[in-house]
Design a protein that fits this description.
The protein has helices at about 25-30, 70-85, 100-110, 120-130, 160-165, 180-185, 215-225, 235-240, 245-255; strands at about 10-15, 35-40, 55, 85-90, 115, 145, 170, 195-200, 205-210, 230-235. It is an alpha/beta fold. It has a 5-stranded parallel β-sheet with strand order 3-2-4-1-5, with helices on both faces. The protein has a 5-stranded mixed β-sheet with strand order 6-7-10-8-9. A hairpin with a 7-residue loop joins strand 8 (about 195-200) and strand 9 (about 205-210). The termini are far apart.
Length: about 260
């Protein structure tokens, strides 16, 4: 007699990179998984929570063969029907530029039960790990989180709007568009705005670049910063206790 398998997919946010920054609920779901489909930005240490699960890498890497989103969707559904308890593990929070809602919509169209375990978004956690508070009384009343690359491979028009505000601006997937971003902020006379670029945030390979809109491209070249990285633009950057002395010394040099 064949036992029918009830398919279920749990979409888990793996957090910003540090394996300790996944939620307890996420860990519990990993331990119960029969199959895990994971992305390139997740910390591989997390897979140790599911030693008996089948592991399928479906990440996208620039310059290398990668699955299309349609292929990933199909793989999730196929494995859910085959193994029952499937986990889709994505970096950060899957509902913040992670296409998580697209995957859930596709999976549920097959009548498959789904569950979402939110993750700690790198857009907030990575700056916080460097002591950068995205909002601070008297400095910044709000913040923007913007994708640097839209589905059309262009820079989001929201960057133009954000550059005109006093809000903190956090840009994900924006390193390839850095020169465009800098040009926009310069257009609105924001050359002296403090800027931080954090590569591989919260991990052992973390790298940091500090500067202003005026010189951040030079900093990137000197320190050889690249993706994956988060760009943080705003006065709150110099308010960080870690960076306050750096920007104070820069200001002193300018006054000489």
């Amino acid at each position: 007699m064949r036992i029918s398998i009830k398919p279920k997919v749990t979409l888990i946010g793996a957090g910003p990179g540090d394996p300790d920054l996944i939620t307890v609920k996420g860990v519990k779901a990993l331990k119960n998984a029969n199959v895990i489909l994971y992305d390139s930005l997740i910390n591989r240490e997390l897979l140790a929570y599911a030693p008996n699960a089948k592991l399928i890498f479906v990440g996208k890497r620039k310059g290398l063969h990668s699955f299309t989103q349609d292929e990933i969707n199909e793989l999730i559904v196929r494995n859910a029907f085959e193994y029952g308890n499937a986990v889709r593990l994505k970096g950060g929070d899957p509902f913040i530029f992670g296409r998580g809602s697209e995957e859930i919509d596709y999976i549920e169209s097959f009548g498959i039960e789904t569950e979402v375990v939110p993750g700690i978004s790198s857009s907030m956690a990575v700056p916080a790990s460097q002591g950068i508070s995205l909002t601070k009384r008297g400095v910044s009343e709000s913040f923007w989180v913007i994708t640097g690359t839209t589905s059309e491979r262009k820079l989001s028009h929201d960057v133009y709007l954000a550059a005109q505000s006093t809000a903190t601006v956090v840009i994900l997937m924006g390193m390839s568009k850095l020169s465009e971003i800098v040009a926009i902020f310069k257009k609105f006379n924001k050359t002296e705005v403090p800027t931080a670029i954090i590569q591989n945030g919260t991990t052992k390979n973390e790298k940091l670049g500090l500067g202003t809109i005026d010189n951040i491209e030079e900093v990137v070249a000197q320190q050889q910063l690249s993706s994956p990285a988060i760009i943080v633009i705003g006065e709150v950057v110099k308010e960080s206790s870690k960076f306050h002395s750096f920007y104070k010394s820069v200001h002193s040099e300018l006054l000489k």
